[in-house]
């Protein structure tokens, strides 16, 4: 009996050890499977939309990976309210928070997120931010130190020639001050002014911020033709630059991009109504920017209504400039090696209203961009699709027609995992 007991004990121990090992293998397998299921899906994109059925506008999380079986799937949909018209999406500088500007509603919102174990976000709430008396929210710029962010208000504090730039505490979201400068009786007098500001960009090494003068929010009362420089230290407008042949020419500069991060410090702007791209050089001796000169004549290339400017560096480690043209709907890619000249390298397909872009790399290694084809639902600029295009070959890999399939018109897009570009402002 003693001998049999001695034989059974080690046998039982081996059985228990085997069972424990099997449990660990099963647990590891389950955890691996769960992590695989929740692994980052690079094609997940935030999409601002207006409801085409007079229902509430909102924000959707959509799978736009052309290699995904779930392409076109709305993963999450959050309603923000009727007439909010969410307009631009932004991650802050360290990509820890997400903001949404709006033409209506509260004009600015923070999107609160939770992330699963694989890093996939879920929108938990959309919180309005008090913008004071400033109306019609447009673009944001976040400072590198994480202390402040600047926001352009197309409508400013109201009026036919309104316009303001809000300065916010980036930690509390509280409005610190609003920058405003009235247009003089003679805009060519040299007195700086801010009117209908839309685009915004900065070069913090130079201590300068720029905003464009685009168009009155009602799209009829007035049109701008300037870019204004603001001193970062004083938050005061210090110079206004003409974008056009004269102050009688209404060009509506929509976006401005101050090159930085090792690129020569030129400033670029898209003239929405002129159809052209203008460039200004920085004068180190004067410590200011010179006047804008036309670098690209849209008519020479059969394009018009240039909108967004993006710097993107692909796997070849070369920074390139991507510009969306709403008419006829294309994206031009420019080399930056001959500034102030822009060298057109390739033309990528888009559709009417080509506007915002997001870049990502698919699982198979294809470098792609998503193009949002809609400009304020204006006739002839509202194709309404989201196109996925190979940025090297120009092949259209997939297209989602959001109005036809879901009754929603896409207003802007951003990657669900942070900046879907090197920078755009």
How would you describe what is shown here?
This protein is mostly beta strands and 425 residues long. The protein has two helices and 30 strands. Strands 3-2-1-30 form a four-stranded antiparallel β-sheet. Strands 4-5-6-7 form a four-stranded antiparallel β-sheet, with no helix packed on it. It has a four-stranded antiparallel β-sheet with strand order 8-9-10-11, with no helix packed on it. Strand 22 (304-313) and strand 23 (319-327) form a beta hairpin. The model is unreliable at 1-38 (pLDDT under 50).
Distance between the termini: 84 Å
Rg estimate, integer Å:
25 Å
What number is the mean pLDDT?
91
Low-confidence stretches: 1-38
Number of helices: 2
Q: How would the global form be characterised?
A: globular
Strand order of the largest sheet: 3-2-1-30
Characterize the main sheet. Answer: 4 strands, antiparallel
What proportion strand?
over 45%
Structural class: mainly beta
Record field, number of beta strands = 30
Brief account:
With 425 residues, the protein is mostly beta strands. The chain has 2 helices and 30 strands.
Primary descriptors:
single chain, 425 residues, mainly beta, four-stranded antiparallel β-sheet, 2 helices, 30 strands, 10% helix, globular, disordered N terminus
List the helices and strands and how they pair.
Blueprint: H1 2-37, E1 44-51, E2 57-63, E3 74-81, E4 86-91, E5 98-102, E6 108-115, E7 121-128, E8 135-142, E9 148-156, E10 164-169, E11 175-179, E12 197-203, E13 208-215, E14 223-231, E15 236-242, E16 253-258, E17 267-271, E18 276-280, E19 282-283, E20 288-289, E21 293-296, E22 304-313, E23 319-327, E24 330-335, E25 343-349, E26 354-361, E27 367-373, E28 385-390, E29 396-401, H2 402-406, E30 408-415
Antiparallel strand pairs: 1-2, 1-30, 2-3, 4-5, 5-6, 6-7, 8-9, 9-10, 10-11, 12-13, 13-14, 14-15, 16-17, 17-18, 18-21, 19-20, 22-23, 23-24, 24-25, 26-27, 27-28, 28-29
């Amino acid at each position: 009996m003693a001998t049999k007991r001695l034989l059974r004990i080690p046998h039982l121990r081996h059985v228990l050890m085997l069972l424990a090992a099997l449990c660990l293998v099963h647990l590891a397998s389950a955890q691996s499977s769960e992590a695989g299921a929740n692994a980052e899906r690079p094609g997940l994109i935030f999409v601002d939309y207006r409801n085409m059925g007079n229902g509430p506008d909102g924000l959707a999380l959509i799978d736009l990976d052309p290699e995904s079986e779930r392409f076109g799937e709305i993963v999450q949909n959050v309603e923000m309210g009727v007439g909010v018209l969410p307009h631009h999406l932004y991650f802050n500088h360290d990509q820890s928070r997400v903001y949404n500007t709006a033409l209506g509603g509260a004009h600015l919102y923070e999107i609160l997120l939770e992330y699963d174990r694989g890093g996939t976000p879920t929108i938990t709430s959309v919180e309005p931010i008090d913008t004071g008396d400033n109306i019609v929210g447009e673009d944001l710029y976040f400072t590198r130190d994480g202390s402040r962010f600047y926001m352009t208000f197309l409508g400013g504090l109201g009026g036919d020639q309104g316009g303001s730039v809000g300065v916010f505490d980036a930690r509390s979201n509280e409005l610190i001050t609003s920058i405003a400068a009235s247009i003089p009786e003679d805009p060519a007098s040299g007195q700086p002014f801010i009117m209908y500001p839309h685009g915004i960009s900065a070069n913090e090494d130079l201590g300068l911020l720029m905003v464009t003068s685009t168009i009155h929010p009602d799209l009829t009362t007035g049109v701008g033709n300037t870019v204004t420089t603001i001193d970062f230290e004083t938050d005061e407008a210090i110079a206004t630059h003409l974008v056009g042949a004269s102050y009688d020419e209404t060009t509506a500069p929509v976006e401005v991009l101050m090159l930085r991060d090792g690129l020569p410090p030129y400033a670029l702007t898209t003239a929405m109504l002129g159809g052209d791209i203008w460039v200004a050089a920085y004068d180190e001796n004067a410590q200011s920017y010179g006047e804008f000169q036309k670098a690209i004549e849209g008519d020479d290339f059969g394009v018009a209504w240039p909108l967004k400017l993006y710097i993107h560096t692909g796997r070849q480690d070369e920074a390139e400039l991507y510009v969306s043209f709403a008419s006829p709907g294309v994206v031009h890619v420019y080399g930056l090696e001959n500034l102030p000249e822009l060298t057109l390298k390739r033309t990528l397909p888009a559709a009417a209203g080509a506007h915002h872009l997001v870049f990502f790399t698919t699982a198979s290694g294809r470098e792609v961009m998503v193009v949002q084809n809609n400009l304020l639902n204006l006739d002839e600029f509202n194709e309404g699709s989201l196109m996925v295009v190979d940025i090297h070959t120009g092949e259209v890999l997939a297209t989602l027609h959001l109005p036809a399939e879901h009754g929603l018109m896409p207003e802007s897009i951003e990657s669900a995992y942070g900046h879907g570009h090197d920078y755009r402002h």
